[in-house]
Each structure stands twice: as structure tokens, then as C-alpha cells.
Design the sequence.
């Protein structure tokens, strides 16, 4: 074997801003698209060298010789790559996008080759069976165990005879998933309904009418055009007083990508997903059995918090039974209102439901979103959020001036009680051209204990898309955000705290790394609860003109509207979760051939749904989360994490009964220690139990949602 030396950056490369920041903070504004290829090529080479060294027979299977150097090299690569993909999300330009796209396949190929590297698997196995393993700390052990699990789930233990078929299954699944979402998109795009007479659009808001006129112009049509894309479709369902229009749009919507879809009449059935779903379920079942699991649902639980297929099924069924009476109550209320106020013949049909619900909401809970927004200037909201964090978790958040990628971006340091900086984060609040929509938290750097004993402190990005401040009479107004925006900000800050307050030193399980993904939304949804507390809102609001806090009366209104029709909404989510779960746990390879997906979907709907489902409904044919996203046998995790977060929050409500405030420092400290600090270093179920002193209970979520 030849001994090579590690690749060293040339003098030119040392000046490349994607290399020169090393373990520090990147100087985003200096990065040019032309820096990307040379930096990433070099870092890939360096990482590949580390992999080759790791699998070298002479490399001892010890943490410091095997895991540390590998982590050093892959972290350098993923941090620089992280900076580029971050810029691609928040400061997109055609040049950056193309440079990013050029390197993407190489980076993806490198990381997937790691998971397929059997020599590396053997080394990790050797380490786990060595005497040295017992001397590792729990976080280090967890990193090794997670790696071994991922190798096994990637097929590392399969025989040589099985491997080609396993690889084939992965490829086929990827193709089918892509075809599924293409069909949904094509079926959604393929339908256009044109309205010629404005009087047919009675009830629709002006902006929806303007958008329909614009769409017609784009398509060279006369009048107003509607498609089945949600922003075009849903306002019709919600506001249109034209019942025939609603029915026609509804029927087109629920038959997309099925044998009943509108395209069928044109003799083109290629958008029908019926066979695609069967094929995917069959392949998933086959994959699970190859890996030694009874079904795909059981396989999907390997990296999750839930323990067994039955546990999830029981969780969902019990939840459904509790929610059903409230859904029935919502339904009766809606039907009663429709009968008395809306004069609909034959009662409520499925295409009347969003319309009737909107009318009822207006009648009962109307308030002006715009008026409410005046009470939430962003700086005041941030002060409020930081105050909550400070009181609960004993850290101070101070403005600082890290290099950023845009003038609107703010940066902050997080200091402990001794005044030492323990973390940094960025806040990029406003929507702008070149910035991807939505809101998210991402890690720029994870906490890690370095070999020299130093601590690398974590850094996070909080990205939102609030409406930017506007100029009135030439003067820039204070930026104000909606109450929904406030909830989003608290949500992302919850993910941020999970990442920033970790005390774990092993990168693979520090902060949000390695957290089971049915538990990862716990800290984020937990923070949302504070946005519904009067004591928090009162001190977090100041009218943009008068400076007065939110009036109590307006607060009561938003609180009353919060749980409007929540019984029906909750039950719908549970039925979707249960359908996903049973498709992946009850079907086996043999059944999938014969038993139709639709039959099972109908059976669950008949058992649990309250709103009568029309015969023609084929909603399952567009359930992209489970057939084209990452949520196969995972849709339940939304509700699962909500239960956890509500139950954690209930501990603060219990403390408030004694102390008078939900901002209870002692409970906050316990939450910080048992949940935030440990990150992925121990199972989420253990962390929950350590905080709550018992198993999770669904009661708090039911109570918060008005379902108790
Ligand atoms: Zn989240």
C-alpha cells in the first residue's frame, strides 16, 4: 500500500472564502460563484482522503483515529457546502444557482458512497465490539450506534446475492416517486376552467378575481381562469357563492391523478396514479422484508421515537375516538348554520363545507387581521421573544455584527450567566427577490468538542419571509408582522434553541443532529404556545402608532377563533395518518397485488370520518407526502410531536398554577437540561420522561385544541 499525504490547499485556494473561514464564521458577501467549484473539489478530495485513511487496515478502530479525522474532513466539506446551499436559498442568482447545481451531484455522490462503504462499516463494527467502546461517553456511543443502524438500513448486511435486487428496489422507488408527483402536477396543471360572466364569481375576494383575470390573459383566454392549484382553487371553495362552480371545481380536484380525472375523457390516462401506488407499496414491503422487518411501517420506525407498529396504530385510533365527538359537534354546528343562514337545498354537500365554514367564521369570530398586525412591530416582538428565552433558559441574547449576506440580516450572540458567548445566530426576516419562500432553521455550525479540548460553539440560521417594511409618505414605517408570523418566529426559534443550547460534544448527536424525526418538532411547537399567552402578548405588543399593548378584547377574539372547527380538522389529519400507517403495515407483498388501495382508504374513512365522502373521491391518488415525499409511514409524526410539545408545555401551565406565570424559570431550567441540552445523544422518549417524570399523555393537546 502506498502512503500518501493529505491534500493541502494551494496558496490561491487558501484565499478562497469557502476555505479560508476554516472553523470560523464565513464572510458571505465575499463569496463569488467562481469560488465554488475549486473549493468544493478540494474539500471533496480531502474528505475522500480521510475516508481512505479510515478504512486503511493500519488505522486503529478507535474514536480518535477513526471517527475524529473522518468527522474533521466531512465537517469541513459539509460546512462549506452548507454556506453555498444557504446562499442558494436566500440570495439566489443565476450564476450561483448554476455553480451550485454543477457541484451538487458530486457532493451527493460522496455522501451516499459513505453509506455504501462496507469497509467503513466493518471499521465501525470493529470499534463497537472493541474494549475501547466502553470508555466512550454516551454521546459518542450513540454516534457509533446510529452509524451502524444507518449502514444496516442501507443494506450493508445483505448477502451479495440480494444486493443487486436491493439497489434495483431503491432505483425503482425513486422513479415511481418522481412519476407520482409529475402526475399530480400534470393533472393539476391540466385542468383549466374559464368563467365568462363576472356575476358567476360573486363572493370571491378582489385579489382572487384579479389573479383569475391575470391567469386568463397568460393563457390567451377571455374572462377569468381557474386551475386546481391551491391558491387558485381554494378561494373558490371558500368564498364563491356559486354552488355549481364549487361542485364542478371540487369534483375535478378530488379526482386528480385518478381513473376518474378529467383527462380520462380525452383518452389520456397516463396521469392515473392507481398502479403507481400499488407498485410503490409492493416495493416498500419487499425492501422491509429483505432487511428483516415484518412490514414497511416497522422498518420506518427504526430511526424514530415510536416503538412499535401497534403503538402508532393505537395512538391514532385512540386519538380519533377522542376527536370524533368534537368533529360531530362541529359538523352539527355547520349544518345548523347552513340550514338557517345559507338556504342550501339537500343540506351540506362536501363542496359546500369550506364555504359554509368561512361564512360561519365571519359570523362568529370576525376581526381585522390588519388591525391586529398593527400591534406587532418586529423589534418589539423580538424583545418579547428574547425576554421569554432569557427568563426560561437563563441566557442573554445580544445584537452583534457577524458578516452577513444581506443588509436586512441581523446577527445575535447568546451569552450564559457568566457572560460567555455560547452560541450565535442570524435572523433573516424579510421576503425579497432571490430568497426561497417559507421559514426554516438551519445549522451553520454544530457544537463539538475538538481534539485540542476547545469547544466549537454552534451557529444557526433563522430564516423567515415576513412582509418587508413599507414607506409611507417617503418615510420607512416600523416593520409589523402578523400574529401567524409571530407564531412562525417562535416556532423557528424553538428549533434554534434546540441547536444552540446543546451541551453535547459529539457532532453527530449534538443539537438537532440525530434527533428522532417524530420528535424533532417538539421544541419548535412547544415555543408556539407562548404566542397564545396573555402575559406574553401583553408585554410583546405595542401599537405601531399609539404604542399601546394589544387590547384584551382583541386577544379574546383571536383566542376564540384559534380552535374554530378544530374537531373536524384534527379528525381529518388523523384519518390521513391512519391511512398512511395501515397502507404500510397491513398490506403485504401478496395482498398488494389484489387488494385495492382505495378499498382500504374508504374503510378507514367510513370508520372515522364525520363528513360523508363522495364515491368519486380519490384524494389518496394525490397524497404526495407518502408517495412522493419523505413521509411514507411517517405522516403520524405531525400529531405525535404535537402531543409531546403540548404535554411539555402543560408542565409550564402546572407551574403557573403555583407561581402565577408560565414563564417559570425552574421548569425552564429542567426543560433546558433534559430536552434541549441533550439533543440527539439519548432517545427522545428518555428525555421526555426525564423532564415530565412519566410517559407522554394526549390530554394537554386535546385541552389546548378545545377537544376535551
Ligand atoms: Zn419545524
Sequence:
Amino acid at each position: 500500500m502506498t502512503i500518501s499525504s493529505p491534500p493541502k490547499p494551494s496558496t490561491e485556494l487558501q484565499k478562497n472564502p469557502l476555505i479560508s473561514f476554516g472553523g470560523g464564521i464565513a464572510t458571505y458577501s465575499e463569496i463569488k460563484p467562481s469560488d465554488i467549484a475549486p473549493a468544493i473539489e478540494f474539500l471533496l478530495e480531502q474528505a475522500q482522503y480521510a475516508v481512505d485513511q479510515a478504512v486503511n487496515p493500519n488505522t486503529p478502530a478507535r474514536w480518535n483515529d477513526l471517527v475524529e479525522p473522518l468527522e474533521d474532513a466531512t465537517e469541513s466539506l459539509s460546512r462549506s457546502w452548507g454556506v453555498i446551499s444557504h446562499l442558494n436559498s436566500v440570495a439566489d442568482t443565476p450564476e450561483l444557482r448554476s455553480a451550485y447545481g454543477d457541484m451538487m451531484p458530486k457532493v451527493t455522490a460522496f455522501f451516499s458512497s459513505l453509506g455504501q462503504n462496507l469497509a467503513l462499516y466493518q471499521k465501525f463494527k470493529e470499534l463497537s465490539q472493541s474494549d475501547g467502546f466502553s470508555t466512550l461517553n454516551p454521546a459518542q456511543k450513540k454516534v457509533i450506534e446510529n452509524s451502524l443502524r444507518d449502514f444496516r438500513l442501507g443494506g450493508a448486511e445483505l448477502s451479495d446475492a440480494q444486493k443487486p435486487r436491493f439497489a434495483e428496489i431503491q432505483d425503482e422507488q425513486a422513479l415511481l416517486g418522481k412519476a407520482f408527483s409529475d402526475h399530480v402536477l400534470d393533472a393539476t396543471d391540466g385542468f383549466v376552467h374559464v368563467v365568462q360572466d363576472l356575476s358567476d364569481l360573486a363572493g370571491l375576494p378582489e385579489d382572487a378575481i384579479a389573479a383569475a383575470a391575470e391567469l386568463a390573459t397568460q393563457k390567451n383566454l377571455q374572462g377569468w381562469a381557474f386551475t386546481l392549484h391551491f391558491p387558485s382553487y381554494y378561494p373558490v371553495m371558500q368564498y364563491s357563492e356559486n354552488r355549481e362552480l364549487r361542485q364542478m371545481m371540487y369534483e375535478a380536484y378530488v379526482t386528480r391523478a385518478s381513473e376518474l380525472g378529467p383527462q380520462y375523457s380525452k383518452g389520456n390516462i397516463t396521469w392515473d396514479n392507481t398502479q403507481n401506488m400499488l407498485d410503490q407499496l409492493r416495493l416498500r414491503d419487499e425492501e422491509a422484508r429483505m432487511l428483516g422487518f415484518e412490514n414497511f411501517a416497522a422498518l420506518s420506525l427504526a430511526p424514530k421515537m415510536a416503538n412499535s407498529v401497534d403503538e402508532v396504530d393505537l395512538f391514532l385510533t385512540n386519538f380519533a375516538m377522542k376527536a370524533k365527538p368534537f368533529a360531530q359537534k362541529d359538523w352539527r354546528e355547520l349544518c345548523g348554520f347552513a340550514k338557517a343562514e345559507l338556504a342550501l337545498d339537500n343540506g351540506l354537500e362536501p363542496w359546500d363545507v369550506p364555504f359554509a365554514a368561512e361564512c360561519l367564521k365571519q359570523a362568529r369570530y370576525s376581526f381585522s387581521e390588519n388591525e391586529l398586525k398593527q400591534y406587532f412591530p418586529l423589534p418589539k416582538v423580538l424583545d418579547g421573544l428574547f425576554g421569554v428565552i432569557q427568563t426560561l433558559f437563563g441566557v442573554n441574547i445580544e445584537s452583534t455584527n457577524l458578516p452577513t449576506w444581506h443588509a436586512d440580516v441581523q446577527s445575535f450572540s447568546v451569552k450564559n450567566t457568566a457572560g460567555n458567548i455560547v452560541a450565535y445566530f442570524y435572523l433573516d426576516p424579510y421576503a425579497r427577490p432571490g430568497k426561497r419562500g417559507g421559514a426554516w432553521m438551519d445549522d451553520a455550525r454544530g457544537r463539538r468538542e475538538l481534539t485540542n479540548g476547545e469547544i466549537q460553539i454552534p451557529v444557526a440560521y433563522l430564516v423567515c419571509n415576513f412582509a418587508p417594511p413599507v414607506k409611507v409618505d417617503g418615510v420607512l414605517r416600523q416593520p409589523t408582522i402578523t400574529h401567524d408570523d409571530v407564531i412562525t418566529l417562535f416556532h423557528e426559534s424553538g428549533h434554534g434553541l434546540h441547536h444552540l443550547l446543546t451541551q453535547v460534544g459529539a457532532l453527530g448527536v449534538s443539537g438537532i443532529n440525530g434527533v428522532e424525526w417524530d420528535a424533532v418538532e417538539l421544541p419548535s411547537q412547544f415555543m408556539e404556545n407562548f404566542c397564545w399567552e396573555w402575559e406574553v402578548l401583553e408585554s410583546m405588543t405595542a401599537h405601531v402608532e399609539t404604542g399601546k399593548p394589544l387590547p384584551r378584547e382583541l386577544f379574546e377574539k383571536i383566542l376564540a377563533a384559534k380552535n374554530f372547527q378544530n374537531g373536524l380538522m384534527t379528525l381529518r389529519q388523523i384519518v390521513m395518518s391512519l391511512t398512511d400507517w395501515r397502507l404500510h403495515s397491513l398490506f403485504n407483498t401478496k395482498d398488494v397485488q389484489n387488494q385495492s388501495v382505495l378499498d382500504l382508504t374508504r374503510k378507514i374513512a367510513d370508520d372515522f370520518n364525520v363528513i360523508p365522502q363522495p364515491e368519486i373521491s380519490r384524494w389518496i391518488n394525490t397524497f404526495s407526502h407518502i408517495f412522493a415525499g419523505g413521509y411514507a409511514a411517517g405522516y403520524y409524526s405531525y400529531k405525535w410531536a404535537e402531543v409531546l410539545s403540548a404535554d411539555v408545555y402543560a408542565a409550564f401551565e402546572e407551574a403557573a398554577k403555583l407561581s402565577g406565570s408560565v414563564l417559570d424559570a425552574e421548569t425552564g431550567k429542567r426543560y433546558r437540561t433534559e430536552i434541549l441540552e441533550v439533543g440527539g445523544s439519548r432517545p427522545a422518549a428518555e428525555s421526555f420522561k426525564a423532564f415530565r417524570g412519566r410517559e407522554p399523555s394526549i390530554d394537554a393537546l386535546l385541552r389546548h385544541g378545545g377537544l376535551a
Observations:
- The pocket of zinc ion is lined by residues 491, 495, 521, 524 (CB under 6 Å).
- The mean pLDDT is 93.
- DSSP finds 29 helices and eleven strands in the chain.
